[in-house]
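Long-time lurker, first post. I've been practising inverse folding by hand and with some scripts of my own, and I keep getting stuck on stretches where the structure tokens seem ambiguous. Below is the full token string for one chain I'm working on. Before anyone asks, I'm not after the true native sequence, just a reasonable design that respects the backbone. If someone could post their per-position residues I'd love to compare against what I wrote down in my notebook.
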């Protein structure tokens, strides 16, 4: 990719404060260059009954796909798009839906995390991304009321999978002072035998 075309930068986002802080950190750190193309990836999952699980833990039947999309877009507008548009930025939004092999109730979180991790890695490769950003979100999955998907997106399984399998440089943005997240990232990188250059765990702003 030539410099004139700009880089493709991917942020995997969900309905969480951690992801909102991640975006703010990326903007405040001046990591985006003129001409860069920003991509936001959000994953929803559909259970075997054909309904969508979306932010807030709500379900939308297959007969109402437009309502489901409206809810997701409203969340993305509130969390991310509004602030980006105020800066004159027009990111590309990717809403990816997948069908787990079991019901939401019976689905193992570890398997679901791997599936979402694969989707993130695949999207980064398809877009020929130069960098991927994930939010650490440590602890949020334990008290979130936003539903199964939002809790898993903030959990450790997806981060670990992407860290081990993504061929694109990755940065996991943790809240300021979250030394445990940094130690976890470094330990996982050492176990995977991956070099630390080109990615890592960044200390973002503290959650308020």
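-- Answer (accepted) --
I ran through it position by position. Result:
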């Amino acid at each position: 990719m030539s410099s004139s075309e700009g880089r493709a930068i991917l942020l995997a986002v969900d309905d969480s404060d951690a992801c909102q802080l991640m975006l703010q950190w990326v903007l405040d750190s001046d990591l985006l260059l003129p001409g860069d193309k920003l991509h936001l990836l959000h994953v929803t999952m559909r259970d075997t009954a054909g309904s969508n699980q979306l932010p807030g833990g709500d379900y939308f039947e297959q007969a109402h796909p437009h309502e489901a999309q409206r809810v997701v877009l409203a969340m993305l507008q509130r969390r991310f798009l509004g602030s980006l548009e105020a800066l004159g930025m027009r990111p590309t939004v990717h809403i990816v839906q997948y069908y787990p092999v079991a019901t939401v109730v019976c689905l193992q979180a570890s398997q679901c995390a791997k599936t979402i991790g694969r989707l993130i890695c695949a999207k980064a490769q398809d877009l020929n991304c130069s960098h991927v950003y994930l939010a650490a979100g440590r602890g949020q999955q334990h008290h979130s009321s936003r539903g199964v998907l939002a809790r898993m997106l903030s959990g450790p399984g997806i981060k670990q999978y992407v860290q081990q399998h993504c061929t694109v440089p990755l940065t996991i943005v943790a809240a300021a002072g979250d030394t445990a997240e940094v130690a976890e990232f470094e330990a996982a990188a050492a176990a995977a035998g991956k070099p630390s250059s080109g990615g890592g765990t960044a200390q973002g702003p503290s959650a308020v």
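A couple of notes from the structure itself: The CA atoms of residues 100 and 107 lie 7 Å apart. The longest strand covers residues 37-46. Happy to go over any region you disagree with.
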